[in-house]
Design a protein that fits this description.
single chain; mainly alpha; globular
Length: 111
């Protein structure tokens, strides 16, 4: 019986010591291409959108900005039926999409 109480107490102490992971919030007034947008593109897009690819090239700021101007980047992310949903293999999480949308709304600066 003592072993059950000791085990239960150990589990209780273990649960108390758990920490919730925190993510540093992004200041929406300070979205940066280099710090916020480019890492998303590198993680989710660049594998298929390299220099010389048949699809939109997203390997540098100028190419990404061109897809913003044409409406292609936003259309591919928001499910617009005039564009193919990207990325192909998974849906980009809402947090990443919102960072890109904020960057576009702020004038998609090269910063």
């Amino acid at each position: 019986m003592k072993k059950k109480y000791i085990a239960a107490f150990g589990c209780f102490v273990g649960l108390l010591s758990c920490e919730k992971a925190t993510v540093e919030p992004i200041n929406p007034s300070a979205i940066s291409y280099n710090k916020n947008v480019q890492p998303i593109i590198e993680a989710h897009c660049i594998e298929c959108h390299l220099m010389g690819s048949e699809s939109a090239e997203l390997y540098d700021y100028d190419r990404v900005a061109a897809t913003v101007v044409s409406g292609q980047l936003e259309g591919c992310l928001n499910g617009d039926t005039n564009f193919v949903q990207m990325p192909f293999d998974h849906v980009l999480d809402d947090s990443s999409k919102n960072i890109i949308y904020l960057w576009i709304d702020q004038g998609f600066q090269d910063n």
